[in-house]
Amino acid sequence: MTNEKVEWRIQVEDGPWKRAGISCSMWSFISSLYSKLCKFVKKAWEIGVNDPRKFIHCLKVGIALTAVSLFYYLKPLYDGVGRNAMWAVMTVIVVFEYTAGATIYKSVNRIFGTTLAGLLAFGVHWVASKAGDQWEPVIVGASLFLLASATTFSRFIPTIKARFDYGALIFILTFSLVSVSGYRVDELFNLAQQRISTIIIGTSLCIIVSTAVLPVWAGLELHVLVTGNLDKLANSLQGCAAQYFEAQAASESNKNLMGYKCALNSKATEESLANLARWEPAHGRFNFRHPWKQYLKIGATMRSCASCIDALIGCINSENKTSDDIMKIMSRTSIKVGDNSANVLRELASTIKKMKKSNKLDILVIEMNNAALELQNLLKSYPNTQKNAKDGDAKLEIPIIELIQVVTVVSLLSEIVARVEDIVKCVEELSDLAKFKPEMSKCDKTKQHSTDNKISPDQQNDEETVIKTLQMV
Amino acid sequence: MTNEKVEWRIQVEDGPWKRAGISCSMWSFISSLYSKLCKFVKKAWEIGVNDPRKFIHCLKVGIALTAVSLFYYLKPLYDGVGRNAMWAVMTVIVVFEYTAGATIYKSVNRIFGTTLAGLLAFGVHWVASKAGDQWEPVIVGASLFLLASATTFSRFIPTIKARFDYGALIFILTFSLVSVSGYRVDELFNLAQQRISTIIIGTSLCIIVSTAVLPVWAGLELHVLVTGNLDKLANSLQGCAAQYFEAQAASESNKNLMGYKCALNSKATEESLANLARWEPAHGRFNFRHPWKQYLKIGATMRSCASCIDALIGCINSENKTSDDIMKIMSRTSIKVGDNSANVLRELASTIKKMKKSNKLDILVIEMNNAALELQNLLKSYPNTQKNAKDGDAKLEIPIIELIQVVTVVSLLSEIVARVEDIVKCVEELSDLAKFKPEMSKCDKTKQHSTDNKISPDQQNDEETVIKTLQMV
To answer: What keywords are assigned to this protein (chains A, B) (predicted)?
Structure first.
């Protein structure tokens, strides 16, 4: 049956279609377009399925927009704000962002930018109107030119760019609209008042929807991103050492091995999230002034560790192979260094996740350093090992070429251990700044089981969703 | 005289100010505020002085804005477009960006987003008006909800995010404004037409000012950024090898040494510039479809090389010091590897700068590989060197601890050489994609001196300005 169908289609393609050349190419064009479209839709659908919060965000935008449109549809509300209701709709579209932090940042900037510019434009207009008809356009024009240039310049200044970029844009926008329209419209005060009130309506609606309905907190995203990257770094490090010394199948653990690249590439994301997180109110276990900037420092030390792992992986894949004898001698301790530093990284991740000072961390760091020292000593004592071998059997000197790779791996592992210590320092600074409480030991825990500082099931759910999502991406 | 003055001030501070405690603290508050303000202004001024194009950009914004305000001030123009002139002003403020590419991207997105949304809203409005009074708000509301959600979702799709993010925003904005206001205003067609014409006026003005008056091309910025990073990488690499083996004063060349960090950190900038550059028309020596994406690949290989340099610098600063004897043996060849790979990187930078296929590159790559091979051989032959030494004088075996660092440095240098070759491949791909012409040898040059494909003095000036600026930053 299937065969018949296929044959039928082929016959048709060979028959009538070939005769009508244009229709044929048209047909193939449409079918290729269709298959492209299908692929595109499938890809888009996968984006949403991998992170359902993106679907939810779209629904939230729809809800906010439909809600604000009510100002137009409902007669009494319309009479209140009149034609300016348009500004509420506009505000919702422009201000509503994916994370709550971004929405609040834009809302606050929009309100203050509009108000400040409105007042200033009003002042300029007043001065201009006193100056007489001849000077009025000159004063208005000159002030517009000067203020627009100055504000545009202020957007190049890093601190302003990070916090008030949108506000500066809105400032120029409002100032020019008010001062320009002020030249024609005499009911300036009324206009400004109505516009500000519609903007406040729009922004409040946005802030309410984005913080109350399944909010996406920039702070939480940053928190999960950084802890996730710590875990990925740990996996890479452990996998790296194990793969080299145990000659594991590379393909199997390749995905784990490449995790460090996430840490290397997330600088821009971390910075934008940290910038937005500072606008967010206290949420979950984070206070209003949670030290988000410290996450950036942790990110920087992680990247420096990740570049070392990158170099290590490069050296492992290089051509100089090490003799099996030395590998055997070094193997156990090297894997131990890899495991121990991975343990430290995982403990750091769990410290940040739990927001409790770890009581195992010190021991783990000592273990890691001891393992690194042991590895160095093993390498130092290598001539002795060699000598013993010489006494025992006929082996003379191992050519240095067979040492190159193992020495490099050991040396890079020591460097990685040193850089992991930098991460430890940064995380400890974070735990001081954010006033993490000390973790209770197990016996304490049973005593104080259900009293102190517990994560509510809801909060835990939220965080688990974020974590799952980021793992899928 | 100075002494007296100081004393007088101290007396005053001790005297009347202390009695009035509030004034005193107020005074110190104001003075600290004043000094902060001074610092801020100084910093801002320096930003502008380091890159005068930022000052120029502000003036350009001022000019464009004042020009578009003429629609309000001049009576005949005002009568043409009416109250909708506001949209021209708004367009200029929102669309005018620092680089020409960004301005064109936003302009095109704004025009197409507005037109498409306007047509669609018009269609929906027509359907709704045919459906009767009862169904009209339902149809308008539902279409608004659906389209807003779908368009918001499309902004999560990477390809759309990179090219049409702003267009999608404008699409939602216009669709809701038109469909919502359509419910009240009956002169919808006129409104849409006027609005689109004002937007076209605004965007054309922006595009003209940003491409004609001292334009800042995103493509040129990217080009200069990538070639600059190649040079910085070369300096770092050369400095690194030289500092280690010649024990140069670290502080002196520290700035040069840290240049590789620029390459490590410019991923986000490169990506945004490449995204914007594709909107730019042919300018200078770049065609409309110049392969900007290839610059991103070059950037990625540069970062991988920079990671290795980062690890190398870490190892150089580690505690294991190498004995002077080995250093002496390895020194010359290692520095040669550093110099040769730096030469390759510089030749790559000059290839991209001149946009001519280099005729020295192959030789330089061979020289670099030979030097790397020589270094490896030197290390391999080390036992022999050692034996000779043993025969000559009393030295027995050099403990392996003294070898660790030098072996690591050599091994990382080989890895860096391998990664430099990746950069070479990427640059060669670029030269194929962008159809670089082969460079003329010197004798050819004298023949064809003033005929073919010369850079005009103007173009050269432009590029020199960009290069100088980026060097200062």
So the answer is: Ion channel, Ion transport, Membrane, Transmembrane, Transmembrane helix, Transport
Distance, CA of B24 to CA of B7 (rounded, Å): 18
**In chain B, what are the helix, strand and coil shares in percent, each to the nearest 5?**
80, 0, 20
Residue B286: strand pairing partners: B283
- The backbone torsions φ and ψ at residue A285, rounded to the nearest 5 degrees and listed phi first, read -100, 10
Quick: pLDDT tens for A46-98. 888 888 899 999 999 998 888 888 776 766 666 655 667 778 888 999 999 99
Rounded to whole angstroms, the Cα distance separating B296 from B421 reads 16
DSSP class of B393: S
Residues 419-438, chain A: which have Cβ within 8 Å of B? 419
Contact A299, A226 (CB under 8 A): yes
Distances (CA, A) of B265 to A264, A266, A267, A440, B250: 10, 11, 8, 40, 23
How far apart CA A340 and CA A342 sit, in angstroms, is 5
Task: Measure Cα distances from B268 to A205, A229, B216 in Å.
Answer: 33, 19, 19
**Residues 6+ away with beta carbon under 8 Å from B270:** B222, B225, B226, B295, B296, B299
Scanning B158-217, the segments in alpha helix (DSSP H) are: 158-181, 188-212
For B362-365, the CB contacts below 8 A with 24+ separation are B364/B340, B365/B421, B365/B424
Rounded CA separation B390/B382 (Å)? 12
Q: Are B412 and A433 in contact (CB under 8 A)?
A: no
Q: Are A209 and A57 in contact (CB under 8 A)?
A: no
Q: Where are the alpha helices (DSSP H) in A355-400?
A: 361-380, 382-392
- More confident: A321 or B473: A321
Are A223 and A295 a contacting pair, CB within 8 Å?
A: yes
**Closest in B180, B264, B265 to A72, CB measured:** B180
**Would you put residue A74 in left (φ > 0), alpha (ψ -120 to 50) or beta?**
beta
Phi then psi for A264, rounded to 5 degrees? Answer: -65, -35
CA B355, B360, B364, B366 torsion-angle sign: positive
Weakest mean pLDDT among A149-158, A192-201, B59-68, B98-107: A192-201
Could you give the CA distance from residue B409 to residue B314 in angstroms, rounded to a whole number? 10
What is the phi/psi pair of residue B286, to 5°? -100, 130
Helix (H/G/I), strand (E/B), else coil: A96: coil
Please report the residues numbered 157 through 216 in chain B whose beta carbons come closer than 8 angstroms to any beta carbon of chain A.
Answer: 157, 169, 172-173, 176-177, 180-181, 183-184
- The alpha carbon of residue A62 is apart from the nearest alpha carbon of chain B, in Å, by 5
Q: Which amino acid is at B96?
A: F
Of B153, B184, B320, the CB nearest to A58: B153
Q: Which residue of B has its CA nearest to A92?
A: B173
Partners of residue A70 in chain B, C-beta under 8 Å: none
Its sign, for the CA torsion B387, B389, B395, B398, is: negative
Residue range B115-174, pLDDT digits in tens: 999 888 888 888 888 887 788 878 888 888 899 999 999 999 988 999 999 999 999 998
CA distances in angstroms from A160 to A25, A151, A233, B207, listed in the order given:
56, 10, 34, 26
Which residues are CB-neighbours of A328 under 8 A, at least 6 positions away?
none
CA angle B423, B429, B434 (to 5 degrees): 125
Q: Is the dihedral of CA A168, A170, A173, A176 positive or negative?
A: negative
Residue A152: list chain B partners with CB under 8 A. 57-58, 61-62
Instruction: Give the amino acid at A28.
Output: S
pLDDT at A393 over 60: no
Phi, psi of B438 (to 5 degrees): -65, 145
- At A220, the amino acid letter reads L
